[in-house]
Specification:
By secondary structure, this protein is α+β, with helices and mostly antiparallel strands. The protein contains 2 helices and 5 strands, in the order E-H-E-E-E-E-H. The protein is globular. The protein starts with a strand and ends with a helix.
């Protein structure tokens, strides 16, 4: 499921603030992902290659089902863990592009 900035779960998360946080990472496509360790859902950045995609893919054309799990730090688990993408945050991609 692709998602815009308006995507939020029952906790009314601020996805833009999560993306700006250092815990999201600094490079890559913004995705909403679930840590396989503690099951928390957070915005993370991952390079397309880490998620089984071509490096030059347009992120606005991707669906979460197209992506593979990727490794990223989980600050709750206090280690690098696997994250499963649940949504490509196309609204955040477009916001960063100035669209």
């Amino acid at each position: 499921m692709s998602s815009g900035v308006e995507h939020a779960d029952q906790d009314e998360r601020d996805l833009e603030a999560e993306l700006e946080s250092a815990t999201a990472g600094h490079v890559g496509i913004p995705v909403d992902a679930i840590c396989v360790g503690c099951r928390q859902t957070r915005v993370k950045r991952a390079n397309p290659e880490e998620m089984g995609q071509h490096p030059q893919v347009d992120p606005t054309t991707l669906e979460a089902e197209d992506l593979t799990s990727f490794k990223h730090v989980c600050h709750r688990c206090e280690e690098a863990t696997w994250w499963n993408p649940v949504a490509v945050l196309t609204g955040l991609v477009e916001l960063e592009r100035g669209e």
